[in-house]
Amino acid sequence: MPDPSNLLQEAMKLSPEARAALAGSLLASLETEVDADAEAAWGTEIERRIRGIEQGTTKLVPWDEVRRRIGL
């Protein structure tokens, strides 16, 4: 079995887009059961957030500001 720390070092050499795709694939591999109620609730929440952005009622924060706030 490969050493996770070596895998992480190799993954960090990837582009941000490739790392995001890899992270998404890894997370998806952990989802063995789908909670239909949770999926429906997230769908509703996503639609609500999109409406807020489209209507201009949601304040968006630039990524640079988010990174600063969380200390990245």
Short key terms for the protein model shown above:
single chain, 72 residues, mainly alpha, 2 domains, 4 helices, 71% helix, flat
Structural class: mainly alpha
Radius of gyration over alpha carbons?
17 Å
Number of domains: 2
SSE run: HHHH
Question: What value does the average pLDDT take?
Answer: 94
Q: Please report the distance between the alpha carbons of the first and last residues.
A: 31 Å
Portion in strands: under 5%
Q: Ranges with pLDDT <50 over ≥5 residues? A: none
| Structural shape | flat
Main sheet characteristics: none
Please count the beta strands (DSSP E, at least 2 residues each).
Answer: 0
Could you estimate the helical fraction of the residues in percent? over 70%
Helix segment tally? 4
Description:
With 72 residues, this protein is mostly helical. It folds into two domains: 32 residues; 39 residues, no CATH class. Helices cover 71% and strands 0% of the residues. The protein contains four helices and no strands. The chain is flat.
Helix and strand layout, with pairings?
Layout: H1 4-11, H2 16-30, H3 36-55, H4 63-70
Give me a quick take on this structure:
With 72 residues, this protein is mainly α. It is built from 4 helices and no strands.
